Amino acid sequence: MGSSSAGLQESSCAPRADFVHFGPAKTPAKLNPKEMKLRLLTLTLISALVAMPVLRAQDNKEDTTELGDKMDKISGAFRKLGKQISDSSKNEDSLAQVAIIKDAATAASQMEPAKKKDLPPDAQAKFVADFQAKMKDFIATVDKLAAALKANDNTTAANILKDMKTMEDDDHKDFRKKKQKKST
Ligand code: HEM
Prior knowledge:
This protein is an all-alpha fold. It is built from five helices and no strands.
């Protein structure tokens, strides 16, 4: 056994050649041009990735119209109805969803579809009148749905909901602009 202070004595071993020293991070001034380029490229890539969702959200916002906002309201309530239309214990909430659809559809019937501007001037008035007439039919169907729910007739209510889906599909074909492919 050596002396008890042996562990504290300075080592007489030569420093190891393969020992890695982690010095402080290089400041930009100490970076060579290649490292600088790499850092810039990484930074640009990160910034682009962060900015992408923001730009996409702005892009979508430009596409929305006042009529589109009303349609989104109809869509949310319609989807909820689809899940619960056969469940009579949910009729109170179903009637609340129907009221949302009626309000939004009534407001929508006062608006004009964006597609109007793509039509020749002499076809525009008829296009808007047809849209309003179809929206009126739709609202009348919404009233029938409310009556069926109030009577707790969920079978009839479910059938009316199917009719509304058919109206949606047909009327979108006639009055909604065709989706444009996004240019990237
Ligand atoms: C259950 C019924 C319906 C649902 C769930 C529905 C849903 C929608 C949705 C989600 C949009 C896209 C909204 C956006 O751009 O953010 C839309 C657009 C549109 N819908 Fe409907 N819709 C329904 C019925 C109707 C009816 C009955 C008509 C016409 C009589 C109609 C005419 C339109 C038009 C014209 C657009 C394009 C908006 C614009 O031109 O500004 N929809 N609809």
